[in-house]
Design goal:
Keywords: Signal. Residues 31-159 form the Lipocalin-like domain. The protein is α+β, with helices and mostly antiparallel strands. It has one domain (2-160): Lipocalin, CATH 2.40.128. 23% of the residues lie in helices and 47% in strands. The chain contains 2 helices and 10 strands. The chain has helices at 2-29, 82-90; strands at residues 31-42, 47-48, 56-61, 66-72, 92-102, 105-113, 122-130, 133-138, 141-142, 150-160. The chain has an 8-stranded antiparallel β-barrel. A hairpin with a 7-residue loop joins strand 9 and strand 10 (150-160).
Amino acid sequence: MVRLLALAFAAYCYLQPALLLADDAAGQLAGSWKLTAWTIQIIGGELTEPMGHDPKGRAVFTPDGHVAFIIAAANRKPAANDAESAALLKSLLAYTGKFTIESDRFTTKVDISWNELLTGQDQVRFFKLEGDKLSLRTAEQISAVYPGKKVVGTLEWERER
């Protein structure tokens, strides 16, 4: 029993710094972030701006570990018919979920998404936080924007105060 307690205490002491860093990063992410740029590198292809040069977007991280992302093309106009409504959907991306942080990686367990493609999936992002600037990068993955193509996405955010 003493060995088990000693082992448990050693594991706690070993893991505690990582847990504190994750909590600290989550606290630093808490708030509202405005999208400033989004690029997608198609593997073996071109670098694209899927929502145009000046996309609109917001990410909101809560202190209790929830996140919501919404991104829209800059040139959207109200729809006048079904075809234009369908086109609006193609110029939008949104999802929410509970997130966890491990080192420079955060994972969102998606509970709601704009087209159900991501609902129930884990979205893994690598992040770099420098003051009021947040950079998110995907791992190489099959694209939700360019179906069937492998991509790496990079999103740049600025804290809103």
